[in-house]
Design goal:
Its cofactor is a metal cation. Its EC number is 2.7.2.4, 1.1.1.3. It is a single chain. The protein has 32 helices and 30 strands. The protein is α/β, with parallel strands linked by helices and 846 residues long. It has five domains: 211 residues, 3-Layer(aba) Sandwich (Carbamate kinase), CATH 3.40.1160; 102 residues, no CATH class; 153 residues, VC0802-like (2-Layer Sandwich), CATH 3.30.2130.10; 148 residues, NAD(P)-binding Rossmann-like Domain (Rossmann fold), CATH 3.40.50; 183 residues, Dihydrodipicolinate Reductase, domain 2 (2-Layer Sandwich). Helix 18 links the parallel strand 19 and strand 20. Helix 26 crosses helix 27. The longest helix has 21 residues. The radius of gyration is 38 Å and the shape is elongated. The two termini are 52 Å apart. Bound molecules: adenosine-5'-diphosphate, aspartic acid and magnesium ion (MG).
């Protein structure tokens, strides 16, 4: 037994593919259930609505007819075209005679008859009442009549042994509250009789349609062809049922809502049933009952990718866990368009029969209940029903409890609309702990409020009612909670200059191993610089990121769009790594942190800039937003800020900080005085070695060091700003406004004053060092000082940074952090370390 969904019969190409797939199964007797061509049922419903309203439905009718006839023409090109047939029907016999090939009155004639009948029905559509309903039901079923004709013809027709069965001839159903029930005995008998008259080997059957006990046309409900296929699999005693559709199988969630959904290799009938009932459109909810009773295995397969194995639905399903970390949940689904009905009352506590009365009232009003939840205090009892039935349900409950409400025992009945139910489904949930915790953890992280909870005693389904506005976010968060590592981080990188570039290389080398060992899944999904940005829904390989950014010139950098993309609903965490030196980017931190985006940066603007912004960042962090780490702003990869934090967090009292915070200035003063070379010569050499900024004044001004000192002071709780720091610039006043060339040409002007300071220092047995100092009195200064030769700062090498912390605990002998404090490798590593520190705070073990 095969079933082709509407998407698998969308055009002539799909019809041909369907035939090829059926040919692969030619060794068996084949029965094929056909849905209407994609969109046809919707189009028919629209025609009914138009005709009912009295609007002009003819153009839509003609378009639907053309679409079907075009497929017929393509399938049987040798036959008379639609035009010639039309002429023939109009009485032009000569057109008929002129046709070269012998006329097979089958396909086109039958289609034209069908469309004529539809036109007549629409033209004479009853105004209302039962007759209108009957006509509408009949009209909805035309699509399957036409598609089955086309499929039979595509397969070669009766000549090739293919019969066609209009299901209304044999399939007898009775509509019920829970959908259509099958009259199996009558249907079997009718099929038997039909088979006696139609003995071809293989059969095409119309999906969706059936007859009722009175012989009137009816349907199995929207999406009902899956159910048809299952019923006919039973009636024809099929060995197996394949449902062909447009996805690889049953996925862990609706792929239109959850881009990361994965295909499930095998699930049990019960699991499939729960998923379908709770909204997974891939299967009509009633599909499984007939095949399950017979133990007929079902396979869901993709017409577009027949090589994919699909999903097997059978009695046992698949015990191997599919969710990340071995969780037992197989799938998540969502039912939309619901409402919560709640009966509350102090007088209901402990009174027997309340639930019975409530559900009897709903039953009496024909309201079906999707979910029930009652706390053990029985103070309130609530259930979830379809939105369209909510008012009816409320009135019925009010009537049933009228006396209790009048007595004040019950407070009343409330309706809350715009509700969805999210269900997590899996056989293995039985006796498995932690499933609910994971689901609620995911929902909490996505800030989704849960209105009601229910878990069936079968423990195969855990359902939560949520506001409709939260539905997609909730589904994505729940999917991430079960299928992704809890340390999956969506990352956006801004400003890949030297440091960013190096970080990308480090990420490319280390991230795969991290993922394997610690479950830390760092997904670079956005990259941007001042020229543009590249956003990727899945991930950008770090090694390719720069090329992709270079090639993607279309998008200019829009920081809001960038952040919105990084903060993806289907991934648990988001982080922006700002490797730019831009103040405009830093200005966004408070907003990003408040939105829960973690920020990591070597950019000093936020830490040393405007105090109000710094305070806003601190407030956002305190309010439970994202984390903000910036270790690489001071001392590159050296643990300077971390060390200071640890001192303070453990209750130490900071007395002061002395630090050599610039690699460039450290190198200059480490070298100066060791030989007779003048200061200017060393500046030139440092520039040649790439130790200075292109304009050495950026280093010599001391401003960058002052920024670092502000960052440290603020970390220590001092409300300090750049203006408060006494900065000694090594650039003489007269050279500050000069051009770079002029400055370099007049560099020797620095020598005499510096030499004088050096001589004075040597005379005292001291050395010159460039130092940033934070005193106990709060005074902050940056400049050249003379230090005793045994001072720690006089024993550094090359471009080493050195930071001394003097504190209550480190009073006699300061705590020293020392080492290379500049260069892209160590700076990027400092940034990377912060990224990992955040992953650890999210629970990663590394
Ligand atoms: P057909 O026309 O073949 O009957 P449908 O459109 O009725 O196809 O059903 C297939 C669609 O169901 C898929 O394209 C997918 O978008 C949607 N869908 C919803 N939930 C799921 C799920 N859990 N697994 C697979 N598909 C799903
Ligand atoms: N054609 C029907 C519908 O669109 C039945 C189906 O496709 O399963 O609902
Ligand atoms: Mg379907």
């Amino acid at each position: 037994m095969h079933k082709f969904g509407g998407s698998s019969l969308a055009d002539v190409g799909r019809f041909r593919s369907a035939c090829a797939l059926l040919d692969d199964d030619a060794a068996a007797h084949r029965v094929v259930v056909a849905s209407a061509m994609q969109g046809t049922t919707d189009a028919l419903l629209a025609l009914i609505a138009d005709a009912h309203r009295g609007s002009d439905w003819m153009p839509a009718w003609a378009a639907l007819r053309s679409r079907h006839l075009a497929v017929a023409d393509a399938l049987q090109p040798a036959q008379r075209t639609f035009a010639s047939l039309h002429n023939a029907r109009a009485g032009q016999a000569e057109a008929l005679a002129a046709a070269e090939t012998p006329v097979r009155p089958g396909l086109h004639e039958a289609l034209l008859d069908g469309f004529d009948a539809l036109r007549n029905e629409l033209a004479a559509l009853p105004a209302d009442g039962e007759r209108l309903e009957r006509a509408a039901t009949r009209i909805q079923g035309y699509g399957e009549l036409w598609s089955s004709l086309l499929l039979q013809a595509a397969l070669g027709g009766t000549a090739a042994g293919w019969e066609r069965l209009d299901a209304r001839e044999v399939l007898v159903v009775h509509p019920g509250e829970m959908g259509a029930g099958v009259d199996r005995e009558q249907s079997r008998a009718r099929l038997h009789a039909w088979r006696a008259r139609n003995r071809g080997r293989d059969v095409v059957v119309t999906g969706f349609i059936a007859r009722d006990a009175h012989g009137e046309a009816t349907t199995l409900g929207r999406n009902g062809s899956d159910y048809s296929a299952s019923i006919f699999a039973d009636l024809f005693d099929a060995d197996a049922l394949t449902i062909w559709t447009d996805v690889d199988g049953v996925l862990s969630a609706d792929p239109r809502l959850v881009p990361d959904a994965v295909c499930l290799p095998a699930i049990s009938y019960a699991e499939a049933c729960e998923l379908a009932y709770f909204g997974a459109r891939v299967l009509h909810p009633q599909t499984l009952a007939p095949v399950q009773a017979r133990g007929i295995p079902v396979r869901i397969r993709n017409t577009l990718r027949p090589q994919a194995p699909g999903t097997l639905i059978c009695a046992d399903g698949d015990a191997t866990p599919t969710a990340f970390g071995g969780g037992p949940v197989k799938g998540l689904s969502l039912v939309d368009d619901l409402a919560v009905l709640e009966l509350t009352g102090n007088g209901l506590v402990g009174v027997p029969g309340i639930a019975e009365r409530l559900f009897a009232a709903l039953h009496g009003a024909g309201v079906s209940v999707t979910m029930i939840s009652q706390g053990s205090s029985e103070h309130s009892i609530c259930c979830v029903v379809r939105a369209g039935q909510a008012e009816r349900g409320r009135d019925a409950i009010r009537a049933a409890f009228a006396d209790a409400i009048a007595d004040g025992q019950a407070q009343g009945v409330q309706v809350t609309g715009d509700i969805c139910v999210l269900a997590a489904v899996g056989d293995g949930m039985v006796g498995h702990h932690g499933v609910a915790a994971r689901l609620f953890g995911g929902l909490a992280q996505a800030r989704v409020n849960v209105r009601a909870i229910a878990q069936g005693a079968s423990e195969r389904n855990l359902s939560v009612a949520i506001a409709r506005a939260d539905a997609t976010r909730a589904l994505r968060a729940a999917h991430a909670a079960f299928w992704l590592s809890p340390q999956t981080v969506s990352i956006g990188l801004i400003g890949p200059g030297n440091v960013g570039r190096t970080l990308l290389r480090q990420l490319a080398e280390v991230a795969p191993g991290l993922r394997e060992r610690s479950g830390v899944d760092l997904r670079l999904r956005a990259i941007g610089n001042s020229r543009g940005m590249t956003l990727d829904h899945a991930a950008i390989a770090p090694a390719e990121a720069l090329d992709r950014l270079g090639a993607d010139s279309a998008q200019t950098l829009d920081l809001d769009a960038f952040a919105a993309h990084v903060r993806a609903e289907h991934l648990p965490h988001a982080m922006i790594v700002d490797c730019s030196a831009s103040d405009a980017v830093a200005a966004k931190y408070p907003e990003w942190l408040a939105a829960g985006i973690h920020v990591v940066t070597p950019n000093k603007h936020a830490g040393s800039g405007d105090w109000a912004r710094y305070a806003a960042i601190a407030a956002a962090r305190r309010a439970g937003g994202g984390r903000f780490l910036y270790e690489a702003t001071v001392g590159a990869g050296l643990p300077v800020i971390l060390t200071l934090r640890n001192l303070l967090d453990t209750g130490d009292v900071l007395h002061g900080i002395d630090g050599m915070l610039s690699g460039t200035l450290a190198w200059l003063f480490n070298s100066y005085g060791c030989s007779s070379r003048p200061f200017s010569a060393l500046v030139r050499e440092a520039r040649g070695l790439g130790y200075t900024e292109p304009d050495p004044r950026d280093d010599l001004s001391g401003l960058d060091v002052a920024r670092k000192l502000v960052i440290l002071a603020r970390e220590a709780g001092r409300e300090l700003s750049l203006d408060d720091v006494e900065v000694e610039s090594l650039v003489p006043e007269s050279l500050r406004q000069a051009s770079l060339d002029e400055f370099l040409a007049r560099l020797e002007e620095l020598d005499a004053p510096m030499q004088a300071r050096l001589d004075a220092a040597h005379a005292d047995g001291c050395r010159l060092r460039h130092l940033a100092r934070l005193g106990e009195d709060g005074r902050a200064s940056v400049g050249v000082v003379a230090l005793a030769a045994d001072h720690a700062c006089c024993h550094t090498r090359l471009t080493d940074n050195l930071v001394q912390f003097r504190s209550a605990r480190y009073a006699d002998n300061p705590l020293v952090v020392q080492g290379p404090g500049a260069g892209p490798e160590v700076t990027a590593a400092g940034v990377f370390g912060d990224v990992l520190a955040i992953a650890q705070s999210l629970g990663a073990r590394s």
